[in-house]
Amino acid sequence: MKKGIFYKVLAGMFILISSCSSSRINRVTVKNPDKNKLYGILQQNPQFFDSILQKKDEYKVQIIYTQIDRNKEGIPGFTDYYFNVNKDNYYYPASTVKLPVAALALQKLNELKIAGLDTHTTMITETNGDGQTAVDNDPTSADGRPTIAHYIKKILLVSDNDAFNRLYEFLGQEYINNNLHKMEYEDVQIIHRLNISLTEGQNRHTNPVKFFDSIGRVVYQKPADTSRLEYPQRITKLGNGYMHDSVLVNEPFDFSKKNRFSLADLHGIVRAILFPETISSKKRFNLTKEDYDFLHRYMSMMPQESKYPAYDSVNYWDTYVKFLLYGSEKWKADPGIRIFNKVGDAYGFLIDGAYVADFTNNIEFMLSAVIYCNSDGIFNDDKYDYDSIGLPFMKNLGRVIHEHELKRERKYKPDLSALRFVYP
Asked: CB-side exposure of 72: number of CA atoms within 13 Å?
């Protein structure tokens, strides 16, 4: 269900949609807030955003900011502000595609309804084709067993690529995309594994997977599968050139067969996971309360709070994969703030989709953003402007919106206790 009022501002660079929940389930009231609010916040901080605003198309910047207001019963209402958002302005989504796949893995278990099959059942990945690899143990888990729960932990804690690939293989390309399309995330294309070079055909072909109980009996097996998914063909070429086998190729890099995940869909899936009761049933994942609590815990947990997997503080600091509010800073996180998010960074693109809960000041908001940091236009040369442009932008954007939220009046303070977790 999509309702709202669209405004064209500054020749299409700013679009605003507003919706406010007025009942506990799926009833939406359209409001007419200040259509220039988000752009005005950026303009009021030229020291951070002046160059970004001047080159918004060059940086491919897109931002979605959601204010959350509760009524006296604590039911949240949402007012969404969009800056420069355009689903046809392609960006490479990188690791953000891991979030819906993690949720779909939990959903698949609920649909199977097999006795003895749950998130902690031993999951063995076998091979059945070129480019495939097997997994029969996981030394980062407490007992060495690979499980869906442990893969999701690694995805949400440090954005582990292999963990994503194993869930991609468990679900299969058709299940992932068909289910997201049914949920009205119609532009999503998750069509390849991450961090390994495979052909389109190899990515369509997924491994056989078996699940074993504690005495070694097979409780479920998914055979090798080949996807017949038909997805819209697109021509997506970016940049001035790319490196191939250490040689510069002077032509745009082809993203036409790469994953696709719009910022609006990322933002919507974050909301679907944090506030499922506020969206239509069609757009919700089929998850239990325990599933949601599990996702919330590990979306907000920091690497140093995890015992299994255990992460060293040199490579995985407190604010690792928390771009908004922290950027590249490696200091201790604010103990009163938890960020429930999923980031991505690859090919010069930086993305973060987040819900922020400030327990000290009793405020909450959602914020998602993408920025392109590749000034020379060359891909695969490892010369991206993450540290000089992208991460400072993310940090400053998060902090400026947080400061704005601190000053914003609320009729009713939120009760955030359900999102307070005791972390190991």
From this structure: 0
User: What are the residues facing 370 on neighbouring strands?
Assistant: 62, 351
∠ CA 149-137-219, nearest 5°, is 65
pLDDT band for 331, please (50, 70, 90 cuts): confident
Q: Other CB atoms closer than 10 Å to residue 419's CB: what's the count?
A: 19
Question: Cα(424)–Cα(129) distance, rounded to whole angstroms?
Answer: 40
- E-state strands within 55-101: 62-70, 76-83
pLDDT per residue as tens digits for the range 229-264: 998 899 999 999 999 999 999 999 999 999 999 999
- Taking the C-alpha atoms of residue 333 and residue 302, their distance in angstroms, rounded to an integer, is 9
Cross-strand bridge partners of residue 339 = 356
Tell me: pLDDT of 32 over 70: no
DSSP, collapsed to helix, strand or coil, labels residue 401 as helix
Give the domain ranges of the chain: 14-91+260-293+310-419, 95-254
Q: Per-residue DSSP letters for 114-168?
A: -TT-STTSEEEE---STT---BS--TTSSSS---HHHHHHHHHHH--HHHHHHHH
DSSP for 220-287, please give it.
Answer: EEE--EE----------EESSEEEETTEEE-S-EE-TTS-B--HHHHHHHHHHHH-GGGS-GGGS---
The whole-number average pLDDT for the span 309-330 is: 96
Nearest to 342, CA basis, from 393, 389, 299: 299
**Pairing of the two strands 241-244 and 378-379:** parallel
Residues making up the chain, counted from first to last = 424
* Cα(400)–Cα(63) distance, integer angstroms: 13
Burial class from Cβ neighbours inside 10 Å (0-12, 13-18, 19+) for residue 181 reads middle
Q: pLDDT band at residue 34, thresholds of 50, 70 and 90?
A: low
Could you write out the DSSP letters of every residue in 27-54? Answer: -EE-----TTHHHHHHHT-HHHHHHHHH
CA distances from 399 to 338, 342, 346, 395, 405 (A): 13, 17, 23, 6, 10
Q: How many CB atoms lie within 10 A of CB 120?
A: 12
pLDDT tens-digit readout, 72-128? 999 999 999 999 999 999 999 999 999 999 999 999 999 999 999 999 999 999 999
